[in-house]
Write a structure and sequence with these properties.
With 235 residues, the chain is of the alpha+beta class. The protein has two domains: 30 residues; 194 residues, Hotdog Thioesterase (Thiol Ester Dehydrase, Chain A, Roll), CATH 3.10.129. It has seven helices and seven strands. Strands 1-2-3-5-6-7-4 form a seven-stranded antiparallel sheet, with helices on both faces. β5 and β6 form a beta hairpin. The radius of gyration is 21 Å and the shape is elongated.
């Protein structure tokens, strides 16, 4: 009888502890303060059919729009019905935005980000005009561009993973030259291979006039245990 009671108590306590932990994790795993747990993971602005509509509804309110409105590549992407504007504020938890390169502490002046989820492509149109990202040599620190490439290539590849989330397994970046302060740039990322839990993305950064700044290759991997938390809207 004593053995049965001990086993019963152990099983009961274990069940209570596991249930409490699971419930607490499900409710509070997302960083606080943050958007509610029922917020969509990838909420993007729907595309319009023409550049006229794009200008009126998607870009006019964006700080960087005047810099790129006459750029041929920008016009091409804006007119492509398969591209949508990525609203970073809606997919990055509030507690993470401060340390995010494109929006937070190392602000790159609210870049315009467009994605083609069908083909696995991401394009960023930005301007590096923050004093916080200039190195001792008076140019944009390469560490900023490396982190920006890491973030952007991962965003580009998330959709190709089984549970739409993963971690950087390998990142290789080759710098051709440094980006000058107050210069506009274009970041281009493309998924080149997607097999199960592994996605390979290639990317590059160029100045607005086409000068190469950096090229990168990223291997994005979804850990096996991520599938057990796919029902929780974690970032």
């Amino acid at each position: 009888m004593g053995v049965f009671r001990t086993v019963y108590r152990t099983a009961f306590r274990g069940t209570v502890y596991a249930t409490s932990f699971g419930l607490g994790f499900a409710l509070f795993a997302r960083p606080w303060p943050d958007s509610p747990i029922w917020a969509k993971q990838r909420d993007v602005v729907p595309p319009k059919q023409s550049l006229r509509h794009n200008e009126e509804y998607r870009f006019l309110h964006m700080k960087n729009y005047p810099t790129f409105k006459d750029n041929d590549y920008f016009i091409q992407c804006a007119n492509d019905k398969d591209f949508t504007v990525m609203d970073v504020d809606k997919i990055v938890p509030e507690a993470h935005r401060f340390n995010q390169v494109s929006r937070g502490l190392l602000n790159l002046n609210e870049p315009i980000i467009m994605t083609n989820r069908k083909s696995g492509k991401l394009v960023m149109f930005g301007k590096a005009d923050s004093d916080d990202i200039v190195g001792l040599d008076g140019k944009i620190h390469n560490g900023i561009l490396l982190t920006l490439l890491d973030e952007s290539l991962c965003f580009c590849g998330f959709d190709k993973l089984p549970n739409k989330r993963g971690v950087t397994a390998n990142l290789k970046v080759d710098f051709a030259k440094k980006l000058q302060p107050n210069n506009a740039f274009i970041l281009d990322a493309q998924v080149t291979e997607a097999r199960g839990r592994k996605v390979t993305i290639n990317g590059k950064i160029e100045s607005l006039n086409g000068d190469p700044i950096a090229t990168a290759s990223c291997l994005l991997v979804e850990p096996k245990w991520f599938k057990y938390f796919s029902w929780i809207d974690l970032f």
